[in-house]
Specification:
Blueprint: E1 2-9, E2 16-27, H1 28-32, E3 37-49, E4 57-69, E5 72-84, E6 87-96, E7 99-108, E8 115-126, E9 137-148, E10 156-168, E11 171-173, E12 178-185, E13 188-195, E14 198-205, H2 211-222, E15 238-245, H3 249-255, E16 259-260, E17 266-272, E18 276-282, E19 287-288, E20 291-292
Antiparallel strand pairs: 1-2, 2-3, 3-4, 4-5, 5-6, 6-7, 7-8, 8-9, 9-10, 10-11, 10-12, 12-13, 13-14, 14-15, 15-17, 16-19, 17-18, 19-20
């Protein structure tokens, strides 16, 4: 169900308008062809003038009773902001039982690749119940994001997480901050990650969404009797990596609970699709369950 109330005045150079919109269980995903979105219940007011990029000046005030995304129904959302030409400045909040967060920032839509400058304060989010993880993980902390791109895989920029707490099955993991940056150099993507638990450098052709599968695939190539192949073999992934770990075993358990011996180690190598892999390690005493593993 969708109801609207539109007031429109076109007497001046740029039209002036006010629109009130309300929906009840409207299947937005099916309407716009987005399989990730489901039903939405909302009410909002849009006030503005002009429709062109040069004249547009719009104020948006929206309240969402719920919105379904990837089969989870988020409750009690607020989105307020102002769109001037192609620059959106705004505020958003989620007050869901499993996701409580606020976000402020800007989105610059004046370019081929939109630029985002956002700051988020996450009081808590249950990554299992909201569908972001298959493991029982809870996170809280602050994030500062400055990047271009429209998806995780074309992310170029920086992201920092501070004052963070991460729990697995109710047990705190050793994590309080992380800094991530990506850039393009000579047609290759470079990823730098630094935290209290590890530092990593990856250079080449890769997708963020495929990195967990790539790590799993690499370990399977060297320890096939203990590490299962990922359900999806990475394709078009060709990169060099250089990783130093400090306290990593509890994070490797997220890939496979039996993995151990990754603390205070150095890993260096290359993954090139399904053709070849290379892994050199030092100071590592990699184990699986009760077995100590030797690299083939």
């Amino acid at each position: 169900v969708v109801s609207t109330d539109l007031r429109f005045n076109s007497a001046g150079k740029d039209p002036v308008y006010t629109a009130k919109l309300a929906t009840e269980s409207f299947h937005l995903g099916a309407f716009i062809g987005d399989k990730h979105l489901g039903a939405i219940a909302m009410s909002g007011v849009i006030k503005g003038k002009g429709f062109t990029d040069k004249a547009r000046d719009i104020q948006i005030d929206t309240r969402l009773r719920y919105v379904e995304y990837d089969h989870y129904r988020y409750q009690d959302l607020t989105i307020d902001g102002k769109l001037v030409k192609n620059l959106f400045s705004g505020y958003a909040s989620v007050r869901d039982p499993n996701a409580d967060l606020t976000m402020r920032g800007q989105m610059d839509l004046n370019r081929d690749h939109p630029r985002f400058n956002l700051m988020a304060d996450v009081a808590h989010i249950d990554l299992l119940k909201t569908g972001f993880s298959k493991d029982s993980l809870r996170f809280r902390g602050q994030a500062d994001l400055d990047f271009t791109g429209t998806s995780l895989d074309d992310f170029i920029g920086t992201a920092s997480i501070t004052n963070a707490e991460l729990e697995r099955n109710g047990h705190p993991l050793p994590f309080d901050s992380l800094v991530l940056s990506t850039s393009m150099l000579n047609g290759k993507k470079q990823l730098l990650i630094s935290s209290n638990e590890f530092t990593a450098k990856i250079n080449g052709q890769f997708h963020f969404s495929e990195l967990p599968n790539s790590v799993n695939y690499l370990l399977n190539r060297y320890y096939p009797a203990y590490i299962k192949k990922p359900l999806r073999i990475p394709v078009n992934e060709q990169f060099d990596f250089d990783v130093y770990t400090y306290s990593a075993d509890e994070y490797m358990a997220l890939i496979d609970p039996g993995l151990g011996g990754f603390n205070n180690a150095h890993f260096q190598g290359r993954l090139e699709d399904r053709k070849s892999t290379r892994l050199n390690s030092s100071h590592a005493n990699i184990s699986y369950a009760v077995f100590c593993l030797k690299k083939k």
